[in-house]
Amino acid sequence: MTGAEDEAARWWATAVSHIEPGSIELRDRPVQDLIGSASLVDVIWLLLRGSLPAPRHAALLEAALVAGVDHGPQAPSIAAARMAATCGVGLNNAVATGVNMLGDAHGGAGQQCVEMLTDVTALHAAGHDWDRAAREVMADWQSRSRYLPGFGHRFHPVDPRRGPLLDLVRRAVADGEVGGDFLHAALAVEEVLRRRREGRRPVPMNIDGATAVIYAELGFSAPLARGLFVLSRSVGILAHAWEETGQGRRNKGPLPRGVLPARLPQPEDA
Protein backbone atom coordinates (compact mmCIF):
# COMPACT_ATOMS: atom_id res chain seq x y z
CA MET A 1 0.00 0.00 0.00
CA THR A 2 1.40 3.39 -0.96
CA GLY A 3 1.57 6.27 1.47
CA ALA A 4 -1.40 7.95 -0.21
CA GLU A 5 -3.45 4.73 -0.08
CA ASP A 6 -2.59 4.25 3.58
CA GLU A 7 -3.60 7.83 4.33
CA ALA A 8 -6.90 7.34 2.48
CA ALA A 9 -7.55 4.12 4.43
CA ARG A 10 -7.03 5.92 7.73
CA TRP A 11 -9.22 8.81 6.54
CA TRP A 12 -12.19 6.48 5.96
CA ALA A 13 -11.50 4.01 8.77
CA THR A 14 -14.68 2.98 10.59
CA ALA A 15 -15.76 0.37 13.10
CA VAL A 16 -19.21 0.11 11.51
CA SER A 17 -18.28 -1.93 8.46
CA HIS A 18 -15.29 -3.38 6.67
CA ILE A 19 -15.39 -4.20 2.98
CA GLU A 20 -12.83 -6.13 0.93
CA PRO A 21 -13.17 -8.08 -2.30
CA GLY A 22 -15.41 -11.03 -1.44
CA SER A 23 -15.92 -9.89 2.15
CA ILE A 24 -18.52 -7.70 3.88
CA GLU A 25 -18.33 -7.35 7.65
CA LEU A 26 -20.73 -5.38 9.84
CA ARG A 27 -19.14 -4.63 13.21
CA ASP A 28 -16.68 -7.45 12.50
CA ARG A 29 -19.48 -9.94 11.77
CA PRO A 30 -19.60 -11.45 8.27
CA VAL A 31 -22.83 -10.42 6.63
CA GLN A 32 -23.50 -13.99 5.53
CA ASP A 33 -23.67 -14.98 9.21
CA LEU A 34 -26.34 -12.32 9.83
CA ILE A 35 -28.51 -13.07 6.81
CA GLY A 36 -31.31 -15.35 7.89
CA SER A 37 -30.31 -15.31 11.55
CA ALA A 38 -30.57 -11.64 12.59
CA SER A 39 -33.62 -9.42 12.21
CA LEU A 40 -33.49 -5.90 10.81
CA VAL A 41 -33.94 -4.59 14.37
CA ASP A 42 -31.00 -6.73 15.50
CA VAL A 43 -28.83 -5.24 12.76
CA ILE A 44 -29.94 -1.68 13.55
CA TRP A 45 -28.82 -2.28 17.14
CA LEU A 46 -25.61 -3.94 15.98
CA LEU A 47 -24.61 -1.06 13.72
CA LEU A 48 -25.44 1.60 16.31
CA ARG A 49 -24.17 -0.15 19.43
CA GLY A 50 -21.56 -2.64 18.24
CA SER A 51 -23.19 -5.80 19.57
CA LEU A 52 -26.38 -7.77 19.05
CA PRO A 53 -29.21 -6.98 21.47
CA ALA A 54 -30.71 -9.24 24.09
CA PRO A 55 -34.05 -10.62 22.85
CA ARG A 56 -36.18 -8.48 25.18
CA HIS A 57 -34.22 -5.36 24.27
CA ALA A 58 -34.75 -6.10 20.59
CA ALA A 59 -38.47 -6.58 21.22
CA LEU A 60 -38.73 -3.21 22.97
CA LEU A 61 -36.88 -1.45 20.17
CA GLU A 62 -39.07 -3.12 17.57
CA ALA A 63 -42.23 -2.07 19.42
CA ALA A 64 -41.08 1.56 19.44
CA LEU A 65 -40.22 1.45 15.73
CA VAL A 66 -43.56 -0.14 14.83
CA ALA A 67 -45.50 2.42 16.86
CA GLY A 68 -44.00 5.38 14.99
CA VAL A 69 -44.29 4.26 11.37
CA ASP A 70 -47.24 6.42 10.31
CA HIS A 71 -49.72 9.02 11.49
CA GLY A 72 -51.77 9.73 8.41
CA PRO A 73 -51.48 12.05 5.41
CA GLN A 74 -52.05 15.16 7.52
CA ALA A 75 -48.58 14.73 9.03
CA PRO A 76 -46.31 17.27 7.26
CA SER A 77 -43.62 14.72 6.39
CA ILE A 78 -46.12 12.38 4.76
CA ALA A 79 -48.08 15.15 3.03
CA ALA A 80 -44.84 16.51 1.58
CA ALA A 81 -43.77 13.08 0.36
CA ARG A 82 -47.13 12.51 -1.33
CA MET A 83 -46.96 15.85 -3.11
CA ALA A 84 -43.36 15.25 -4.15
CA ALA A 85 -44.29 11.85 -5.57
CA THR A 86 -46.51 13.58 -8.17
CA CYS A 87 -43.80 15.96 -9.35
CA GLY A 88 -41.66 13.55 -11.36
CA VAL A 89 -38.80 13.43 -8.87
CA GLY A 90 -38.74 9.65 -8.34
CA LEU A 91 -39.58 7.56 -5.31
CA ASN A 92 -36.25 8.06 -3.57
CA ASN A 93 -36.60 11.84 -3.77
CA ALA A 94 -40.18 11.70 -2.55
CA VAL A 95 -39.03 9.74 0.51
CA ALA A 96 -36.13 12.15 1.05
CA THR A 97 -38.57 15.08 0.89
CA GLY A 98 -40.61 13.57 3.70
CA VAL A 99 -37.60 12.64 5.82
CA ASN A 100 -36.21 16.15 5.46
CA MET A 101 -39.40 17.53 7.04
CA LEU A 102 -38.58 15.78 10.33
CA GLY A 103 -37.17 18.69 12.29
CA ASP A 104 -37.42 20.13 15.80
CA ALA A 105 -41.17 20.85 15.61
CA HIS A 106 -42.20 17.74 13.64
CA GLY A 107 -40.12 14.71 14.54
CA GLY A 108 -37.83 16.13 17.21
CA ALA A 109 -39.99 15.72 20.32
CA GLY A 110 -38.62 12.25 21.08
CA GLN A 111 -35.07 13.58 21.27
CA GLN A 112 -36.20 16.51 23.38
CA CYS A 113 -38.18 14.23 25.69
CA VAL A 114 -35.15 12.00 26.28
CA GLU A 115 -33.21 15.14 27.22
CA MET A 116 -35.95 16.24 29.61
CA LEU A 117 -36.31 12.81 31.23
CA THR A 118 -32.53 12.61 31.59
CA ASP A 119 -32.66 15.86 33.57
CA VAL A 120 -35.41 14.44 35.80
CA THR A 121 -33.48 11.23 36.49
CA ALA A 122 -30.36 13.25 37.30
CA LEU A 123 -32.20 15.30 39.93
CA HIS A 124 -33.71 12.13 41.37
CA ALA A 125 -30.25 10.56 41.59
CA ALA A 126 -29.11 13.71 43.42
CA GLY A 127 -31.72 13.15 46.15
CA HIS A 128 -34.97 14.72 44.90
CA ASP A 129 -38.11 12.62 44.99
CA TRP A 130 -39.68 11.97 41.59
CA ASP A 131 -42.38 14.60 42.01
CA ARG A 132 -39.99 17.39 42.95
CA ALA A 133 -37.53 16.41 40.24
CA ALA A 134 -40.28 16.46 37.63
CA ARG A 135 -41.62 19.83 38.77
CA GLU A 136 -38.23 21.51 38.71
CA VAL A 137 -37.30 20.19 35.27
CA MET A 138 -40.74 21.03 33.88
CA ALA A 139 -40.41 24.60 35.17
CA ASP A 140 -37.08 24.96 33.42
CA TRP A 141 -38.42 23.56 30.14
CA GLN A 142 -41.58 25.67 30.26
CA SER A 143 -39.55 28.82 30.87
CA ARG A 144 -38.21 28.29 27.34
CA SER A 145 -41.18 26.76 25.53
CA ARG A 146 -44.92 26.45 25.93
CA TYR A 147 -44.67 22.79 24.89
CA LEU A 148 -43.44 19.90 26.98
CA PRO A 149 -41.97 17.40 24.52
CA GLY A 150 -43.62 14.01 24.61
CA PHE A 151 -46.88 15.09 26.26
CA GLY A 152 -50.27 16.00 24.78
CA HIS A 153 -51.62 15.46 21.28
CA ARG A 154 -53.56 17.61 18.85
CA PHE A 155 -55.79 14.73 17.72
CA HIS A 156 -55.90 12.13 20.46
CA PRO A 157 -57.28 12.78 23.97
CA VAL A 158 -55.20 9.70 24.86
CA ASP A 159 -52.63 8.49 22.35
CA PRO A 160 -53.57 4.85 21.61
CA ARG A 161 -49.89 3.94 21.33
CA ARG A 162 -49.02 5.07 24.86
CA GLY A 163 -50.58 2.20 26.81
CA PRO A 164 -49.13 -0.78 24.92
CA LEU A 165 -45.64 0.72 24.86
CA LEU A 166 -45.59 1.56 28.56
CA ASP A 167 -46.99 -1.87 29.43
CA LEU A 168 -44.03 -3.44 27.63
CA VAL A 169 -41.63 -1.23 29.57
CA ARG A 170 -43.32 -2.07 32.87
CA ARG A 171 -42.94 -5.78 32.20
CA ALA A 172 -39.30 -5.30 31.22
CA VAL A 173 -38.67 -3.39 34.46
CA ALA A 174 -40.40 -6.09 36.51
CA ASP A 175 -38.22 -8.73 34.85
CA GLY A 176 -35.02 -6.76 35.41
CA GLU A 177 -34.43 -6.19 31.69
CA VAL A 178 -34.27 -2.37 32.04
CA GLY A 179 -33.79 -0.12 35.04
CA GLY A 180 -37.05 1.82 35.05
CA ASP A 181 -35.77 5.28 35.99
CA PHE A 182 -36.89 6.87 32.72
CA LEU A 183 -40.31 5.27 33.04
CA HIS A 184 -40.63 6.68 36.57
CA ALA A 185 -39.51 10.10 35.34
CA ALA A 186 -42.08 10.17 32.52
CA LEU A 187 -44.90 9.03 34.80
CA ALA A 188 -43.91 11.70 37.33
CA VAL A 189 -44.12 14.41 34.65
CA GLU A 190 -47.48 13.03 33.53
CA GLU A 191 -48.80 13.08 37.10
CA VAL A 192 -47.72 16.71 37.64
CA LEU A 193 -49.52 17.65 34.44
CA ARG A 194 -52.62 15.73 35.53
CA ARG A 195 -52.81 17.66 38.81
CA ARG A 196 -52.24 21.02 37.14
CA ARG A 197 -54.90 20.44 34.52
CA GLU A 198 -57.60 18.91 36.70
CA GLY A 199 -60.96 19.83 35.22
CA ARG A 200 -59.43 20.66 31.84
CA ARG A 201 -58.37 18.54 28.88
CA PRO A 202 -55.52 16.31 30.05
CA VAL A 203 -52.15 16.17 28.35
CA PRO A 204 -51.00 12.57 28.84
CA MET A 205 -47.88 11.08 27.34
CA ASN A 206 -47.91 10.74 23.55
CA ILE A 207 -45.99 8.54 21.11
CA ASP A 208 -42.89 10.71 21.40
CA GLY A 209 -42.91 10.40 25.18
CA ALA A 210 -43.57 6.66 25.22
CA THR A 211 -40.89 5.88 22.66
CA ALA A 212 -38.50 8.27 24.42
CA VAL A 213 -38.94 6.14 27.53
CA ILE A 214 -38.03 3.03 25.54
CA TYR A 215 -35.05 4.55 23.77
CA ALA A 216 -33.70 5.99 27.02
CA GLU A 217 -34.29 2.77 28.99
CA LEU A 218 -32.38 0.92 26.26
CA GLY A 219 -29.45 3.31 26.58
CA PHE A 220 -29.77 5.23 23.31
CA SER A 221 -28.61 8.83 23.39
CA ALA A 222 -31.07 11.65 22.83
CA PRO A 223 -29.97 12.39 19.23
CA LEU A 224 -30.41 8.73 18.36
CA ALA A 225 -34.00 8.92 19.60
CA ARG A 226 -34.63 11.26 16.69
CA GLY A 227 -32.61 9.12 14.31
CA LEU A 228 -34.57 6.02 15.26
CA PHE A 229 -37.85 7.88 14.81
CA VAL A 230 -36.70 8.89 11.33
CA LEU A 231 -36.02 5.23 10.53
CA SER A 232 -39.48 4.31 11.77
CA ARG A 233 -41.41 7.09 10.05
CA SER A 234 -39.56 6.55 6.76
CA VAL A 235 -41.51 3.30 6.40
CA GLY A 236 -44.82 5.17 6.39
CA ILE A 237 -43.38 7.88 4.16
CA LEU A 238 -42.32 5.24 1.65
CA ALA A 239 -45.74 3.57 1.70
CA HIS A 240 -47.59 6.85 1.18
CA ALA A 241 -45.25 8.00 -1.58
CA TRP A 242 -45.63 4.66 -3.35
CA GLU A 243 -49.43 4.75 -3.05
CA GLU A 244 -49.50 8.28 -4.43
CA THR A 245 -47.45 7.30 -7.48
CA GLY A 246 -50.20 4.86 -8.45
CA GLN A 247 -53.02 7.38 -8.32
CA GLY A 248 -52.19 9.20 -11.54
CA ARG A 249 -52.03 12.73 -10.17
CA ARG A 250 -49.59 15.35 -11.42
CA ASN A 251 -48.31 18.24 -9.34
CA LYS A 252 -50.54 17.54 -6.35
CA GLY A 253 -50.96 20.61 -4.18
CA PRO A 254 -52.14 21.00 -0.59
CA LEU A 255 -55.78 21.45 -1.67
CA PRO A 256 -57.90 19.85 -4.41
CA ARG A 257 -58.16 22.10 -7.45
CA GLY A 258 -61.90 22.36 -7.03
CA VAL A 259 -61.64 24.04 -3.64
CA LEU A 260 -58.93 26.56 -4.50
CA PRO A 261 -60.11 30.14 -3.99
CA ALA A 262 -61.08 31.97 -7.17
CA ARG A 263 -58.76 34.80 -6.19
CA LEU A 264 -55.72 34.33 -4.04
CA PRO A 265 -55.29 36.94 -1.30
CA GLN A 266 -53.13 39.89 -2.25
CA PRO A 267 -50.63 41.41 0.19
CA GLU A 268 -52.96 44.32 0.92
CA ASP A 269 -55.71 41.83 1.86
CA ALA A 270 -53.63 40.25 4.61
TrEMBL record:
The pathway to which it is assigned is: Carbohydrate metabolism; tricarboxylic acid cycle
The kind of enzyme this is, by top-level EC class, is transferase
Q: Which family does it belong to?
A: Belongs to the citrate synthase family.
Pfam families, alphabetized = Citrate_synt
Please state the Enzyme Commission number of this protein: 2.3.3.16
Q: Where are the annotated segments for Disordered?
A: 246-270
PANTHER family according to UniProt? CITRATE SYNTHASE, CITRATE SYNTHASE, PEROXISOMAL
SUPFAM superfamilies per UniProt: Citrate synthase
Superkingdom of source: Bacteria
GO MF annotations, alphabetized: lyase activity
Among InterPro entries, the record links this protein to: Citrate_synth-like_lrg_a-sub (IPR016142), Citrate_synth-like_sm_a-sub (IPR016143), Citrate_synthase (IPR002020), Citrate_synthase_sf (IPR036969)
Identification of the protein by name: citrate synthase (unknown stereospecificity)
